[in-house]
Amino acid sequence: MTRTSRLEAGGACSIARSLTLLGERWTLLVVREAFRGRTRFAEFSAALRMPSETLTDRLGKLVDAGVLTRTAYQEPGSRERAEYRLTESGRALYPVLAALQQWGDGHLSGPEGPPAYLRTRDGGRPVRVALVDDEGREVSLDDIVSVPGPGASAAPGTGPGVGVPAR
Amino acid sequence: MTRTSRLEAGGACSIARSLTLLGERWTLLVVREAFRGRTRFAEFSAALRMPSETLTDRLGKLVDAGVLTRTAYQEPGSRERAEYRLTESGRALYPVLAALQQWGDGHLSGPEGPPAYLRTRDGGRPVRVALVDDEGREVSLDDIVSVPGPGASAAPGTGPGVGVPAR
User: Fold this and answer.
1) How far apart are CA B37 and CA B90, in angstroms?
2) What's the CA gap between A79 and A75, in Å, rounded?
3) Residue A9 — very low, low, confident or very high, per pLDDT cuts 50/70/90?
4) CB B129 to CB A126 under 8 A?
5) Which residues of A touch B161 (CB under 8 A)?
6) Which among A22, A114, A160 has the least Cβ separation from residue B151?
7) What's the pTM value of the predicted model, to 2 decimals?
C-alpha cells in the first residue's frame, strides 16, 4: 500500500490515518524499542521475539512513513547491515506511547502495580500525559471541543478527530 | 481470551498490555465514536461501516475490559436494545486518541491541513497533548527517564514502558 492510499484508507480523520499505520500489530512495539535505543534488526528481533518477516515488514513501513531512517553501517570483517533510528516525526510519537503506557498503568496493571514509571531526569518527579492549552495550562476533558479544520471532509462516517467528549 | 490471559500476553509492559486490547483493528475507532456520543449498535455501524460481526466482537471486548458499559433500553413498540457508554476507564483513553490525532495532524495530513482542531470550550484556544510534571509544567522529551515500577519483570524482552528516549 502506498503512503497515499494509506492516507485515503483512513478517511478525513487523523486518528484513523494514524491507526492505519500504527494500529497494525507489532508496529508501535517496534517504535517503543526504538525509543529504548535499539537500532539493529537483531536487537529488535531479540527484544520483541516477533516473526522476522513481520519485523522486516514493519521496519520497512516505518521507514516509508518517515518514522525511522535506515542507514548502512559496517563493522570490520562483517557484512553491511542497516541501522534504524527515530526521525523527528518518530520522536513525536512519544506522547502516543506514553498515553498508552499511562492508560495501561491505571487500567490493566495487576495487583503488583505498574511495571514502570516516567520521571523527570532531574529530581525524579512523576511525569504524565495531559491536555494543555497554548499557555501550557492543563485543560479538563469537559472543557475541550473539536472544531472542523481545513482538511475536514463532508463524507459520512469520516468526521474528524475525537470530537466532543460525551458524558 | 480472558482478561488475565490478555494481560499476560502483553508481558510486563503497560504499552504492550494496552495494545493487546486497543491495537486490534477497529477497536480505537469504536472508542472514538463513543467519545463522539454514539451509544447504539446501529450508530456505530453507520459511522464506521465495519462488518457487523467485528463490531459485535469489539463492543464485547470493550465491555469486558471495562471501557464501555452495556445497558438495556427499550422504546415503546420496539424490542429491547443495548446502549454502550464510556466508563471512567474509557474516558481515560482520551489522551490516547488525542495523541494519535495530534500525530496524524502533524505527520499524515495532506496539503489541505488537519481535518479537525481541539480547542478550549471557552475562548477556543488550541489544545494539545503534552508531558507534564506533578505541578502541571510541561516536560521536554530529553528530560524524561523511565524507572522500574513495582510490577516490573526481569523476563527478557518484556522490559517496562517506553524507556529513555534515545537520540
Assistant:
1) 13
2) 7
3) very low
4) no
5) 101, 115-118
6) A114
7) 0.87
ipTM strictly over 0.85? yes
Interface contacts (A, B; CB < 8 Å): 360
Distances (CA, A) of A79 to A43, A76, A92: 17, 8, 32
The half-sphere exposure of B114 on its side-chain side, counting CA atoms within 13 A, is 21
> N- to C-terminal Cα distance for chain A?
38
Residue A112's closest CA among B152, B5, B8, B13? B152
Q: What is the distance between the alpha carbons of residues A123 and B149, in angstroms, rounded to a whole number?
A: 17
- C-alpha A33/C-alpha A112 separation (Å) is 24
User: Is the per-residue pLDDT at B156 higher than 80?
Assistant: no
Give helix B41-48 / helix B27-35 axis angle, nearest 10°: 110
Instruction: Retrieve residue B148's grid coordinates.
Output: 522500574
